[in-house]
Amino acid sequence: MSFKDLGVNPALIKALHTAGIEKPFPIQKATLPDAIAGKDILGRGQTGSGKTLAFGLALMTRLAGKTAKPMQPLALVLSPTRELAMQISDVIAPLSRTVNLNSQVVAGGLSYSKQIQALKRGVPIVVATPGRLIDLIQKKHIRLDDISITVLDEADQMADMGFLPDVKKILDQTKPDGQRMLFSATLDKDVDSLVKKYLKNPMTHSLANEKSTAGNMTHHVLILEQAHKDLITSQIAARKGKSIFFVRTKHGADKLTKKMNEVGVAVGALHGGKTQAQRSRVLEAFKSGHTNALVATDVAARGIHVDDVSLVVHVDAPENHKDYLHRAGRTARAGAVGTVVTLATHKQRKGVHGLTARAGVRLSESTVRPLDANLVRITGAAEPSGIPIVLAGSAKGEGGGKSDRYRGSRSRGGGKKKKSRPRPHERRKRPR
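RE: above sequence
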């Protein structure tokens, strides 16, 4: 079945072809006919399943050629984080222009005045986070009277982050007879309350239940000595391919990032303590391959959508099975395969097995030591270069400078080595 068969606007199909997108994903095949027909949609599918295009193509096909009054958009996409909002916009914006539709991201950490100016000019599509949108509504910079299509993306994460009261206030201000599309990896009690109150006879399309996000993943728990944990983590980060390392706290993320950079692994940290500019630079460096490893907290990582992440590592075990599944969902995206690893001491072993059992995950267990055969076989671990990595243009370290270029040698798994003499203020002593 082609995009034409599904009813997608011809101009959008041409733009998809130019972008190298020829065949629809399963969730797009399932939802597009109903969504384009204006029916409410309840979509359950893991991240990386192609749902952004599923709802994006539907709303752009339905709104093609329409204009919006100043401060009164026609379609609204709500997301839990600004990073996710920006990535949704990155998908929608180039396509929307082909059908004469403009879009605007409305989120905290981005220019307030630019968002207001765009809304005053009139934009048909707004991609927003709940907090910033509520703020603009209260200050009368935006009205939702003309919203005929509303999309809630990753609704379960919005619930987990405490946004449901704001989401309900927002939905109450949209057209009662408007179309609503809700996408969620899980359907717990809070999300189900949204469905029952705001969706009318929704067409349900479930491509994965909440315990099956791991279809293309292998899951491992690696039992290690606490004294070896930092070294083993750095060796895993020195592998070839993109990896994300999860920790529980902002301090833990910064601490681990510093240790990895000191032993020669180019890595960035992503957490709520970073400015939006810093977070954007770190994420762009990761996407472009300037860094192959990313250290993240749970909340910050909810905006990470990078298709070629082949390994997820739980440096700190997640709080619950839902967080495990959300973390794991950063790999094996778009039909790819991936590996998920949890690092645990002997004392933590029982807790990890219990948590993954609740997540419906089959776990393989191995005992590992630094660069032993099991560690290399499961993760592709390699020896870091030992030459400290310094972020150019930043006196304060990672994320704070004007450039995201890393000086010093890459790890063996991190790509080409770069020969350059460090500037005087960038010189660091080689660790003994």
